[in-house]
Amino acid sequence: MNKNKLSSKLYPLVKTVATAAVLPVLFIYIMIAKPDYKLMNALGHVVVPVAQVIGNIITWPIRAVADAFDGIVQVSVLKAENQELRARLDAANINKNLCDIAIAENKKLSRELDLVLAQPRDTIIADVIHDDSVLGHNTYIINRGQNDGVMAGMVVTTTDMMMAGVVMDSANNFARVRALTDSDTNIAVRVIGSDVYGFMTGNGSKYPTLGFFSNPNFQPTAGVKLVSSNISGVLPAGLMVGEMIDETDVKIANPNEFSRVMVLKFDTPQNEYR
């Protein structure tokens, strides 16, 4: 670039800066030496804006440093707030885990309560001596009868308290039990831990079917556990009946899966079951 051109551009800039620097000095001189208020007022309209511009230029580095410091302070504050929020989030996650544990324990206790309500006052141990399954009718004979206190309508369970049938009739030393798979079986059940009721019906196959839910919005799924209900007035409430394996079929205790059973005596009167 031509030096003459460069100097020609710098000269007006230097001149302007020098003039701007002289004006405040001239203004101060007039105020002290020759206080002409009209002139001072006229110069004030020029000097004050120029002084502001010069002041802004001079103080720019200071303001830049101050802005940078404010930014550092804000970043520090944000970091502190972030740490506090993380601590609160961790505490919230801990509380959520505790709530999940409490919910799981509550469900477990509800299931246990359902079973506790069904505890009998006495039991009679019996062996299965004959299994009769023909044309959809599934019954079996046990070696205990009226002489042992076994009466029609009493509930029969496996040794681990799974419902296994109901006594149809009894003689002195034996009794006939209708299995849950019998086509004439139709018992009231309840979804464990809820107020949803239904009826389980035997069909002669390995798996009875479940239908007619009291809550039409209930969707049965695999794993749903069922207990007996006393809404029919025949069975005591709270005996474990089985577990659903799909939307309709129920896995129950089949007579060919056990050789020893328990006949339960409940405080509630049993109706004749024929």
What is the topology?
Layout (H helix, E strand, L loop, with lengths): L2 H31 L3 H80 L5 E13 L2 E6 L12 E4 L4 E8 L4 E4 L7 E6 L5 E5 L7 E3 L13 E4 L11 E5 L5 E2 L8 E6 L9
Antiparallel strand pairs: 1-2, 1-12, 2-5, 3-4, 3-12, 4-5, 6-7, 6-9, 7-8, 9-10, 10-11
Helix pairs in contact: 1-2
Biggest sheet details: 6 strands, antiparallel, barrel
How far do the termini sit from each other? Answer: 119 Å
Strand arrangement within the widest β-sheet reads 1-2-5-4-3-12
Q: Can you name the CATH architecture of the largest domain? A: Beta Barrel
Round the Cα radius of gyration to an integer and report it: 47 Å
SSE pattern: HHEEEEEEEEEEEE
Structural category: alpha+beta
Shape, per Cα inertia axes: rod-shaped
CATH fold description of the largest domain: Thrombin, subunit H
Helical stretch tally: 2
Written description of the protein model:
This protein has two helices and twelve strands, in the order H-H-E-E-E-E-E-E-E-E-E-E-E-E. It has about 270 residues and is an alpha+beta fold. The chain has two domains: about 5-65, no CATH class; about 120-265, Rod shape-determining protein MreC, domain 1 (Thrombin, subunit H, Beta Barrel), CATH 2.40.10. Strand 6 and strand 7 (about 195-200) form a beta hairpin. It is rod-shaped, with a radius of gyration of 47 Å. The N and C termini lie far apart (about 120 Å).
